[in-house]
Structures are given as C-alpha cells and as structure tokens.
C-alpha cells in the first residue's frame, strides 16, 4: 500500500511540474486522478460548445487525447522518455448542452515503444456521450 501511495505522489509531482498543457487549461480540464493505467478528468460544457450550443466534438477529442497522453507519459516519465500522439479515433454517441462531462481513460497496452488508451466520456447522468482510443509512440527525450 505504501508503494502505491509513493507512486501516486510521484505521478502527482510530475503532473504539477508539467501541467496538462495550455489547451487543457483553455478548455477547463481538471485532472482528478492520474496514473499510467487510469486517468480521470472533468471538463465544463460551457465555453466548449459549437454554434448550436452542443459540446464541440473537438473539445471531447482534446479531452480524450489529453488523458491518453498524460497516462502514456506517466508510464515512461522516469525513464527520460516522452509520449507523442500518433492516432486518435473518437465516436460521438450523444449530445450534451450543459453541465460537466467526465472522462475515464484506461490503458489497453503500456509498451516499450507504444501505449494505447481507451477513454469513455460521460455526462452528469452517467450516460456515455463519446468513446475514444489514442495511440502514443514512446520517444527518447533529448
């Protein structure tokens, strides 16, 4: 149990040092939990809508990619490596007009050269609004 807490603390330190990125800040993404295996975040719908008032699909895609990238990066951060997205696929299943969405990102593969994560995005009622898959290549840091 202590090892898990220490590891969680290291992940938190890495996140605090790097942040989730400028786009994540603009979208209002809040990271609730982060690890290579599971990352959870919320994002407000307000301010992230398209012209007819629905959550913008690009905002959902950015949320999914942010979580997948954070998870992949955390899996290799202590090895002086980084994760770079090479593929993102998202399917929008229902619309949402207000409130907050929650994204849950789970690892499918945590490899030496590639990481794959799946993200489900739900509305406040827990209904699935989108599902995504992101693939990150693992690269050496300069």
UniProtKB/TrEMBL annotation:
Q: Which residues form the Thioesterase domain?
A: 53-129
Q: What is this protein called?
A: Hotdog fold thioesterase
Q: Which NCBIfam families match?
A: unchar_dom_1
- One GO MF term attached to the UniProt entry: 1,4-dihydroxy-2-naphthoyl-CoA thioesterase activity
Alphabetical UniProt keywords: Hydrolase
Cited InterPro entries: HotDog_dom_sf, PAAI_dom, Thioestr_dom
This protein's GO CC annotations: cytosol
Return the SUPFAM superfamilies for the record: Thioesterase/thiol ester dehydrase-isomerase (SSF54637)
Q: Give the species.
A: Candidatus Rothia avistercoris
* Record-linked Pfam families: 4HBT
Query: What is the similarity comment for this entry?
Result: Belongs to the thioesterase PaaI family.
